[in-house]
Amino acid sequence: MKSQFNKGMLSVFLGILPMISFAQEKQIFNDSIFSNALFNAFLVIVIFLLVVIIGLSSAFKNLIQSETKENKERMSKTKGKELLSIVAIFILSSYTASYAQEATSVAAQVVNDWKIGGLDYFTFISLSLAILIEFGVIYFLIISIKNFVKSNLIAEIDVKSLPQPIAIKEKNILDKLNASVEIEKEAEIMLDHNYDGIEELDNDLPPWWKYGFYLTILVGIIYLFNFHVLHTGDLQGAEFDKEVAKAKLEVAEYMKTAANNVDETNVKILTELADIEAGKNVYTANCAACHGKIGEGGVGPNMTDNYWIHGGDIVNVFKSVKYGWPDKGMKSWKEDLSPMQMAQVSSYIHSLIGSNPPNGKAPQGDLMQEAVAVKDSTGMAADTNANALTQVDTTIKK
Amino acid sequence: MEIEKFQYDNKTVKWFAYATIIWGLVGMLGGLIIALQLVFPVLNFDTAYTTYGRVRPIHTNAVIFAFVGNGIFMGVYYSLQRLVKARMFSDLLSKIHFWGWQLIIVLAAASLALGKTTGKEYAELEWPIDILITLVWVVFGWNMFGTILRRRERHLYVAIWFYIATFVTVAMLHIVNSIEIPVTLFKSYSYYAGVQDALVQWWYGHNAVAFFLTTPYLGLMYYFIPKAANRPVYSYRLSIIHFWALIFLYIWAGPHHLLYTAVPDWAQSLGVVFSVMLIAPSWGGMINGLLTLRGAWDKVRDDVVLKFLVVAVTAYGMATFEGPMLSLKSVNAVAHFTDWIVAHVHVGALGWNGFLTFGILYYLIPKMFQTNLYSKKLANMHFWIGTLGILVYAIPMYWAGFMQSSMWKDFTEEGQLQWQFLDTVTRMMPFYAARALGGTLYLVGVIIMTYNLFKTVAIGKFLPNEDAEAMPLSENYTPHSKDHWHRWIERKPIQLLVVSLVVVAIGGIIEFVPTFLVKSNIPTIASVKPYTPLELEGRDIYIREGCYTCHSQMIRPFRSEVARYGEYSKAGEFVYDHPFQWGSKRTGPDLVRVGGKYPDSWHYNHFIEPTSMSPGSIMPTYTWLLDDDLDVSSLKAKIKAMQTLGVPYPDGFAEMAEASLRKQSQEIQANLKKDGIETSSEKEVIAMIAYLQRLGKDIKTVSVNNTK
């Protein structure tokens, strides 16, 4: 019993090896690979399949042992071979995975730009390979168990010629997987009490269950070590900072090449019909609730008169849209609308001036000079930029 | 020694069975109503008592504590007597227990409809009902232990271990989580605030699932599966290991409901690892149940009771595998706050609890009425329509949850959020409709069962007292030398109770105590101030209307959430929140930084008709907030209660509170007038607007200071 337990623990440790190599690898890299969802998914699959393998092989081992008890002479030759092959498979699978990891750490330094789902190409391939190999091992184990049971069954039929061989064959496989005593022999493990007619058997713990339990405990310990003892994993604060920094880089990269990079320093009134149409759509979807369907005002001020609280020239309208006036209930739209969309909606709003809708809300703010509305005076623009800068400051502080 | 003759009490079992059926129908109807309200908001009927925010707690409380609660008592009263070979300890206690529990249910339904709620999910009932629950629970325990102590069976069967653990743990959870300061007869404030309240509440919430929906039902499974299948239990030693491992590990897993929130990282990590370790102990129950059917699978094909039990145990296995997966942070980041979680709990509730209850009912009723089931065909129909109902319910919800979460996280290449929150809501409509259909199918199945059982009762003859006989226990007992070591505690119910309590207390103590004692767990923020009296009254309305059933108040540290809602939430922001209102589901957007996002008039119009401000919104209308005057009669008591809880209002503030409230109301009234809205400053809506406009403002301008 004890040696069986030790063997089990050994196989669990062999299974854990690749995971330990992951943990080691993480210290080499700054960017935690554990923050990658695909990697985590792969890891879960790898671990899950390992559990299956451990369960299957220990069931197989039980199968061989119980069979050999009954049929020592016939099986003695194959037993050793089978056991040997199981151990070999374990070592092979664990080391393939850890080898793959080593390969990754070397390769990742060489090739950095091939990425699949945030994983570099070699990590992706080697993890996929590890999973494939695991599937192969599982397939091999299942086939072996099947063949083993079949050959055994044939031998039994020869001896006893049972009436329903098929039913018995199926039961056997399940029983072996769970290391349960066959129904025919269950009287041997029946406990001597009876509760309102309910009796209890004393079957052993299913090996796959038992080793699965050990494995989850190990995973738990490794998890806590990773995050709270070795501090190799990112806690949520660091994870967030990295996510934001990465996104910032990506957006900056995209904006370098993007044609629609508009901000308050270079925004111009757009007059193309397509732009005004697009602006109108943005307006209807996002602004109409407060400023009225045709800009007549409501919760928010009227957009169609010449009076403006925060300036009605294109730069100021763009700025109001972009940064909002949070203390007055106008939200900032820069997280919701692209710069181009903000320019389009600002231009659309500009086009509404003087449209005189019915039910227009009473004017609010200062009368805007016609000249200013059409082209920005230099003084106004300078003032605008200064404002914009302070605005930017406060948002950064936030 | 002579054989003793005695009788089992079937009458109490029958009452509990009837109550199970009736409350099951009521609770599921409530569920169907709220499911339909999400598709057709008009079904909120513009009346306070029928809005989603009030009906949803009625639904959850009814199915958990009324349907499953009565189901537990039905099964325990039936099986316990037979497993210990003794009649229930006292018929009077049985009667008090039964009627006491039904009284609690009626009071709960009425008080929740009236908006009397603590605002803590699954523990919404106010303090007088909490006390009543405690008393009735003690009666249940007294009756159960009295029976066990008079037993004629030396050892306690595994089902009874589960009953005992259930009794002692639910008592602990209920008492610790319900510690609150009463303000009036039906208003109290949670003793805990913010992060601590969240930890205690989800320790309770998670383990209500564990010790109200799981352990008692595992006990029932251990009785009814071997009885119905007439097979021995598969493995005694598996029972021992999975029982102790389950009750020990379950308690720790509560923080997995709070991943990526302002709860300290170490507590979250404990929640993750203990959830992962829970897979095997949970599956131990499923394996022992399913493998007990070894050699009896041919019976499952014909026996409708076994069919229900098998699907129940399978659903249990699925839900308890999914739970640990959802506890992995990367999965949780996707699933939390979405309908994925709703699907997950309903696989457990409809599959495990529902189907196990139905199986037991189909088994018990014919037995107690000494007849056969009226119609096997109808029972089979119930089985299939119920199974179909679960699938039609769960699959669209999984899909919807995954889809909505992805939409929340989508960015354009320019770095803007791809979708407005509302876009993600309108996309949910077909899925919500499908879910309502699934719920309808399931409910139709229950109606068929009710009819079938009613007919069975009509043709049968009830046996109120069932004759039994057994040898009394001898005074002296010498255990067999080769007995399993665990047999010792099976002879000692009191020791079993005490050891169970110790085992379940460990996890909670280790997780709570540091957050109370170690200051660095909740870094204080100097700019966070207590609510003004008007805001406090507004907050109480927020709680009363059950806003937390749809709106979270917790921004997680994700780029997408910070872009959508603002700076992510910090532990120090919630120190005056008695109770916390983080929520667990985002049917509507997060509100924790809604303050100042819209003008007062926006909120005013939004309460009259949400679609006027957010076309396509499925939020109910709240016109009574505009009509009803704010009741400030308990304001003084509220301020004093808050002071008792450590909220730093200045001395004598209670006396000045009303003046402060009036002043702030008038400011809001004036603000509304500017936008052309005429209203009295004494309306409830004013307080509500004050509260919403305050939310999240304390740290909008100031950076967080970690004072350690």
Number of strands of chain B: 4
Which structural class should the secondary elements of chain B be placed in? mainly alpha
Q: Which radius of gyration of chain B do the C-alpha atoms yield? A: 26 Å
**Helix amount of chain A:** 55-70%
Q: How helix-rich are the residues of chain B, as a percent range? A: 55-70%
What letter string, H or E per element, gives the SSE order of chain B?
EHHHHHEEHHHHHHHHHHHEHHHHHHHHHH
Q: pLDDT average of chain A, as an integer? A: 73
Rg measurement of chain A, Å: 36 Å
Shape of chain A: elongated
Query: Beta fraction of the residues of chain B?
Result: under 5%
Beta-strand fraction estimate of chain A: under 5%
Multimeric organization: heterodimer
Largest sheet of chain A, in brief, is:
2 strands, antiparallel
| Element string of chain A (H = helix, E = strand) | HHHEEHHHHHHEHHEHH
Structural class of chain A: mainly alpha
Largest sheet report of chain B: 2 strands, antiparallel
- Helical region count of chain B? 26
**Structural domains of chain B: how many:** 2
Top CATH class of the largest domain in chain B: Mainly Alpha
- Given as residue ranges, the uncertain stretches of chain A (5+ residues, pLDDT < 50) are 1-6, 17-30, 73-79, 99-113, 162-170, 371-398
| CATH homologous superfamily designation of the largest domain in chain B | Cytochrome c oxidase-like, subunit I domain
